[in-house]
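Continued from yesterday's entry.
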Amino acid sequence: MAASGGQEKTEKATPKKRRDAREKEGNILQSKEVNTAFSLLGVFMALSVLASFMYIQLQAAMRFFLGRIGDTEPVTSSVITATAITLLRYIVTIVGPLLLVALFVGVVPTVFQSKGLFTMKPLKPKFSKLNPITGVKRLFSLQSFVNVIKGIIVISIICGLVYTRITDLLPEIRKMQQMELQQGVLFTAKNIFSIVILIVIIFAFVAAADYIFQWWQFEKKLKMSKQEVKDEYKQIEGDPQIKSKIKQKQREVAMGRMMQEVPGADVVVRNPTHYAVALRYDPEQMISAPRVVAKGQDELALKIIKVAEEAGVPLHEDRQLAKEMHDNLRLGQDIPHTLFTAVASIFAELETIKNKINIDL
């Protein structure tokens, strides 16, 4: 299939393409044959379990209503109401469980295949469907051809199996007139279920083949041209101005987080206003060396110094060390061995000052 601009759709659908097809268009991978096979199997399995119960309830209903034939009680509105309620109760008791199972097994495969997607998009009217040319194309499409062939094959196989099975049972069917009613019902039900099991098996194979075909069709429809992939990539990347604003916002958030670390620093090394690096060292928390918790240049350096002064964090001026740490160390990085001696002397000096203040106090 040729894409717009004459380009072939040879590329697999991107995650965004799949997400848009699912959420915006309601286009999902789904096989109706899977629903049919699952529903058929579920209903007849439920029927095999509920058959005896339904038979007993049917007998009770027949006894009740046949027993009312010779009843001489006057027919009044209350009698009619009571009879209608009893009839409704028997109908619900006999058919209700089977209908609930049918509803359940009809919904489960749909929910499973759609992965819980609920959308009204496919139900919206499309005026393109009213176009006779589009209708003719759809009539002679590959999907329609496959559906026709599939239907012919399935009907032929089912008819052949039913005919063969009934032919094999003819001798036993002739003996049914000698059976009691209950035996005849059980015999009929048993053979009907055996035929249904064969039909279910056929539908299971058809469902598997149809699911594979629908998957192939689904992937084919979602394929993209190389130009579409490029356009989508540009769209995801976004406008350069938007990207710049996002990066700016990210920098502001990171800066705010970094500034929150300054009051907890042990010292700020500065140069004297161009660079500022805040260090923290806590041996009790198993930190092997002083760690960079904040750093900045020019205006940001002045902000770090101001926050440090307000928080009472010691300031130490060392032009070369401040510039070297700012240029070569990243946030959260421990001081390397090459700078350990210089930084250690600063912490030793701070410790001496601290001890002297404690002695004076």
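--- second protein ---
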Amino acid sequence: MTSGGDGSGADLAPHDKAALTAEWLDLAILNYAVPPDALRPFVPPGTELDDFAGTTYVSVVGFRFASTRVFGVRIPGHVNFDEVNLRLYVRRLAPNGWRRGVVFIRELVPRRAIAWAARAWYNEPYRTAPMRHVVARRDDGWPTSARYEWRRGGRWEGVSVQTEADPVPLVAGSEEEFIAEHYWGYTRQRDGSTIEYRVSHPRWRSAPAREARLDADVGALYGAPFDALLSGAPQSAFMADGSAVTVYRPVTLSDASSQHTASR
């Protein structure tokens, strides 16, 4: 990441000003093939649904935040925590080419301050719940299984992935690369506009799942149409190791950008 001429970063564009740094670790990723028409109401203005080889996906992702800093500051009690999110995939044609990004439908975290800050800064759909996780590892540290749970309605729900495969770098053109390699986020705002923010991290390693499960009252958690879309087994699932990440400050898309949706 570059810095401003005076070392403060004051002359950087928002996409180059870090808002949050952390590690995202031990990602358990379940992917569901869904009809594109079911997702169009959730696509922010200025973006369009993205697909892999003609298939439109939503993903349920559980992972660990570690070493979290907000504007460079470690906030006690908010440094290490879990998150589980439901997301879909979009893209936007920017002046320098296509930007592939994610849109979050729901994000669960265990700390109220985290949810408040994310809603205030990004209008992200965060909710809070007691959470816990269990991760099993090989001797070399690679996670062979991960389960992320949250307590809601008086019971524990969860998402889990198990793998027996060795981790490999993401293969160019693979489904795993499509799911993991999104470096932009988009969120519809209360006034109907769209914000765009950049996320940077190195490429991850992954391993396909031997078993993957979502154990939850999906209708109560996510509502329609996801109660039906997530009712069966996932199309695919994998583990990813994760890495250090940086999330940058958001930019509101201009009216011209918000009205433009390129044809494929």
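The domain at 16-259 is CATH 2.40.400.10 (Acetoacetate decarboxylase-like). Residues 1-12, 256-264 have pLDDT under 50 and may be disordered. Will compare against the first tomorrow.
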